[in-house]
Amino acid sequence: MNTSAEWAFTVFQGSDWADINLIGVNGIVAKRYDGSTVADLSGVPAGAKYITTYENRLWVAFGNEIRACAVDQPEIWNDFADLDGSSYGKTIESTRGENVNMLSGSLTKLTIGMPNSLHELYGGVPSSFVTKLITDDIGVVNNKSASTQSGIMRIIDQSAIYDYAGGNLPNQEFSQIVGGYLSGMDTNAAAGSDPDLLYFRTHSNEIMVYDSRTGVGCWSRWTGIDPTFYLLLDDVMYIGDSLGRVLKLGASTADAGTPISWSFTTKPFTNPTMSQRQRWLKLWLYAEIPTGTTVNVYLSTTKNGNDFNLVHTVSGPLSVTDRIIIPVRSVVLQNTVRVKISGTGPATIHELVREVRQLPLF
To answer: Each residue of 238-255: b (16+ CB within 10 Å) or e?
Structure first.
């Protein structure tokens, strides 16, 4: 395999091959793997950098052009006989004169990405293929910066992460709450998904993880891994990283035997108006903390959470769900309180409960 350029992959069988093949292009060569042998894929247009499948055809992109092979004929790309089974090609125009940098095929459409625009191609045969510009303000960083979960594509733009259901404008509402972490994203972004989680490589050694389950909808930030690619195989997520490793996200509560360090920070807890004082009476956790795990609780009295003070430490074992009282003497009359909980090793926190009394405005 030529490693001098980034590869893009898809799978395809067609009518001439006995089984499904893994197909790869990198702008220099095109290869196919049938399960035993890697061979050149003939006929593919020179310079093809991105590849996908749609309507029983292989599709590639190079420059601002997209091309499709003849129906079920992965090695026939120049048959332009104007028949329904013929090859197809089109130049994708954009207001900025950009090149295509992403292709993604689905059952109903082909999504075409550029750095600052998104396009969709519909239809089943060359005579009915039609291309629609969706937006010329939002695009994708690269071919790996889009991932689909439950029929909805999530894309990494140069400054945000968007929901993209197709046919409509992308929406960044779900990622606005972490917008501050997304500034200054580099061009090595990558996206992946499993049935519950979405993974976004936004900066070096950083993954923003979104839990999309109904009623959860929360973000986490993982550090120490620099992904280059994500792949879901048999409901298991694999991550290729910049060190050349392939990492498996399994059910283990440790990282190859090393306890995992973690933390989470709450929003500022206030009265309906921040000018109203409150008396903090009680604060506690319901948690399960196994042997070997240590949990620390910090409190901050500023809305930015820049002055966290350690107020309580607890170590396992707490094998059953137990109540952990957190001292509130240091914040008893504070208008704003933010809680940070950190630990090393696995822990299950079911609930964070507070009891306060509202005091008069001042």
So the answer is: ebebeeeeeeeeeeeeee
pLDDT in tens, 151-160: 899 999 988 9
The span from the CA of 252 to the CA of 245, in Å, is 18
DSSP bridge partners of 209: 199, 220
CA distance 353 to 342: 17
What parts of the chain have a pLDDT lower than 70?
Answer: 303, 305, 319, 362
Quick one: pLDDT at residue 362? 64
Please, what sign has the CA dihedral across residues 351, 357, 359, 361?
positive
Q: Which of 143, 126, 104 is nearest to 6 (CA)?
A: 143
- The closest alpha carbon to 227, from 238, 247, 241, 237, belongs to 241
pLDDT for position 272:
85
3-state SS assignment for residue 345 = coil
pTM: 0.86
Closest CA to 229 of 184, 188, 187, 183: 188
Contact 66, 60 (CB under 8 A): yes
Q: What angle do CA 131, 45, 127 make, to 5 degrees?
A: 35
